[in-house]
Design goal:
- With about 700 residues, the protein is an alpha+beta fold.
- It is built from 21 helices and 19 strands.
- The strands form six sheets. The protein has a five-stranded mixed sheet, covered by helices on one side. The chain has a five-stranded antiparallel sheet with strand order 7-6-16-15-14, sandwiched between helices.
- It is found in: Cell membrane.
- InterPro entries: Beta-lactam/transpept-like (IPR012338), Glyco_trans_51 (IPR001264), Glycosyltr_51/Transpeptidase (IPR050396), Lysozyme-like_dom_sf (IPR023346), PBP_transglycosylase (IPR036950), PCN-bd_Tpept (IPR001460).
- Keywords: Carboxypeptidase, Cell membrane, Cell shape, Cell wall biogenesis/degradation, Glycosyltransferase, Hydrolase, Membrane, Multifunctional enzyme, Peptidoglycan synthesis, Protease, Transferase, Transmembrane, Transmembrane helix.
Length: about 700
């Protein structure tokens, strides 16, 4: 047993005394600090109510295209003029201990901390009504300790200088309820066409749920979500003791009659584009909707007002007014990914659903350039020949079969080249290539090009059967156009706060994603859809719009029973169009199938009319030779058609076409200048050749 000596005992006592003294000094210091903070808070008085400022959006030329407070609605009503149901519903769901704490609910903070710790993520909030009110009054944006401390100080000032009733009144009169309605009176009038004091229990519970996510819980745009939250609030009110179980159930089953609003004219340019910008602000700054609505941000976007107007005018000119067909359209700068024009539908007021961003549709043959880029990287060339004829493919180790067909069942019943297969959009050639390389290869390339939509590893993927959205397809074509460096769809150049401080600024990507030489070979092949030299068993797919085009373009069209696509580019601009019906209706009218191509051609010509004509410049490592497009061999003097075609150096054909030489005219004893035997330039073991 250890013996404690007098000396050690004296040391232990001294240590205990020292610790006690340190703790005592610490407590005194903490009490002194709290006293100072409270005194300062009392002396400074209540924080002034900051006037909310509009967030303004500008096009790339500096002209204003819209602002968040357009048509805002504000009223101030006394607490006694607000429905008790609304007050109780708000307290129940936001801060049930509101009347018992002094601005901070420590039990709730501890509970939230434990919940977050268990989930290893932010899953539960603990802000009181006073803290939320303080946050609304505080204008800074950054999520730093400085801001948190300042908000805490605002909370103390509010609690020390206002009664609970005054704080609650201020909160209910300034909180955002969506659709431009600030405060409960404005919300009551907007949603139910009545005063805040006239709200029923069901209506009050519905409105109390909106501030958590004004867009997400809007009963106009997401009624089912709003209804579920209303039920949660009513059950919480019952649990707290504000209402009985019968009252809760009655309110849950009460029919909600929302006010009907007359169609509002949108003078702002590009409303679909503006919606995307507002969402981008949230993501880039990690802020909520309330912040965007009230903090006076200056947002400089990538929108080109001229191109946007051309796109909208072209849409209205080409698509018949009586048609119900819809559109998704995007135009981007291929060097930066900056979105210059965007259309998400025919009429924003009738449907704010953005078909260029949110809708996923089958891209059809617009998927083929990704396939053929992959093929070029894996040994194919524009001269590679495969047979175009009706074919049944087996896959999954012979357990499954797939039998695609060409448009109108047209086939060459002979070998065709890759350049011609792309220009004529031959489906048999595409599926053969897809299966020969391995179905995972196309998916790998699509991912490189920024296609994030789900892609099924099936033979029909080569024909675009996995749905994608317009913006990701146009962006992918942009990477082909720029020689293969990475870009992403970009809507915002710069964001400044109300004081002019830069909160975000766009930076151009520089990562090389594709092989430059392969990307250029593909680009030149994509000019083939507008080149009648590639006509074969059918005409090139761009035949009907060739006469409208005055400069070199590369592109690809695509069709399914329900979708019509056209995506194409010059070195300066990429644009893509999808047209189709919203609700599973197929396109039957021939002229409606032409809408996408006509809109694209008209837009590109008008958008570039004042721009210099630029061709596609081959990079080092690429060589151009004249070939006979029907067989891919070097063109001989007798060939009726000769087309300049580009190849990665070392893969260009070295043998000449002899299809058009009449050997009977050769004199006896003379050797023909070209070998008599027709060469085969692609002798891989492909079971369908």
């Amino acid at each position: 047993m250890e013996v404690i000596t007098p000396k050690r005992l004296r040391l232990t006592v001294k240590t205990i005394r020292a610790l006690f003294f340190i703790q005592f000094i610490g407590v005194i210091f903490l009490l002194l600090l709290i006293t100072i903070v409270l005194c300062i808070a009392k002396i400074q008085g209540a924080p002034s109510l900051a006037v909310p400022q509009s967030t303004v959006m500008y096009a790339n030329d500096g002209t204003k295209i819209g602002e968040t407070h357009h048509g805002q609605k504000r009223f101030w009503v006394n607490l006694q003029d607000i429905s008790p149901f609304l007050i109780e519903a708000t307290i129940a769901i936001e801060d049930r201990n509101f009347y018992d704490h002094h601005g901070f609910d420590y039990k709730r903070i501890a509970g939230a901390f434990v919940a977050d710790l268990k989930a290893m993520a932010k899953v539960q909030g603990a802000s009181t009504i006073t803290q939320q009110y303080a946050r609304n009054l505080f204008l800074e944006h950054d999520k730093t300790w400085k801001r948190k401390l300042a908000e805490a100080f605002y909370t103390i000032r509010l609690e020390m200088n206002f009664s609970k009733e005054s704080i609650l009144e201020g909160y209910l009169n300034t909180i955002y309820y969506g659709h431009g309605a600030y405060g409960i009176e404005a919300a009551s009038r907007y949603y139910f066409h009545k005063h805040a004091g006239e709200l029923t229990l069901a209506e009050a519970a519905m409105l109390a749920g909106i501030p958590k996510g004004p867009s997400y819980y809007s009963p106009y745009t997401h009624f089912s979500r709003a209804k579920k939250r209303q039920e949660l609030i009513l059950k919480t009110m019952e649990k707290v003791g504000y209402i009985t179980e019968q009252e809760a159930n009655t309110a849950i089953h009460e029919a909600i009659k929302l006010r009907e609003h007359k169609k509002e004219e949108h003078a702002n340019l590009a409303p679909y584009f503006q919606d995307v910008v507002l969402q981008e602000i949230k993501e880039k700054l990690q802020v909520d909707e309330m912040f965007i609505q009230t903090k006076g941000l200056q947002v400089y976007t990538t929108l080109d007002s001229t191109l946007q107007k051309i796109a909208e005018e072209t849409m209205n000119k080409v698509i018949a007014k009586e048609s119900d067909i819809q559109i998704g359209f995007a135009a981007i700068d291929p060097e930066t990914g900056q979105v210059k024009a965007l259309i998400g539908g025919r009429d924003y007021d009738k449907s704010p659903f953005n078909r260029a961003i949110q809708a996923k549709r089958q891209p059809g043959s617009t998927m083929k350039p990704f396939l053929y880029y992959t093929a070029i990287e894996n040994g194919f060339t524009p001269s590679t020949v495969l047979k175009s004829e009706p074919t049944t493919f087996s896959f999954n180790k012979g357990q499954s079969t797939y039998q695609p067909s060409n448009f109108h069942d047209y086939y060459a019943y002979d070998d065709i080249t890759l350049m011609q297969a792309l220009a004529l959009s031959d489906n048999i050639y595409a599926v053969k290539t897809h299966l020969f390389m391995g179905m995972d290869k196309l998916i790998e390339t699509a991912r490189k090009l920024g296609i994030n939509s789900s892609l099924k590893e099936v033979p029909s993927l080569a024909l675009g059967t996995s749905p994608v959205n317009v913006i990701e397809m146009v962006n992918a074509y942009g990477m082909i156009a720029n020689g293969g460096h990475k870009i992403e769809p970009t809507f915002i150049k710069r964001i400044e706060d109300a004081k002019g401080n830069v909160l975000y600024e766009f930076k151009k990507e520089s990562e090389q994603i594709l092989n430059k030489q392969a990307a250029f070979v593909l680009t030149h092949m994509m000019t083939g859809m507008f080149d009648e030299k590639l006509n074969g068993y059918t005409t090139v797919t761009g035949q009907k719009i060739i006469d409208q085009l005055t400069r070199p373009y590369a592109g690809k069209s695509g069709t399914t029973n329900a979708d019509s696509w056209m995506i194409g580019f010059t070195p300066q601009l990429v644009a893509g169009v999808w047209t189709g019906y919203d609700k599973g209706k197929n396109i039957h009218q021939v002229h409606e199938r032409m809408y996408a191509k006509e809109i694209w051609a008209t837009f590109m010509e008008e958008a570039l009319k004042d721009q210099p004509v630029k061709g596609f410049q081959p990079p080092e490592g690429v060589i151009g030779v004249n070939v006979d497009p029907s067989n891919g061999l070097l063109a001989a003097p007798g060939c009726p058609v000769s087309r300049l075609t580009y190849y990665i150096k070392g893969t260009e054909p070295t043998e000449y076409c002899i299809d058009h030489i009449d050997f009977k005219d050769e004199k006896q004893g003379d050797e023909p200048k070209i070998n008599e035997e027709k060469p085969s330039i692609w002798k891989k073991l492909i079971p369908w050749m």
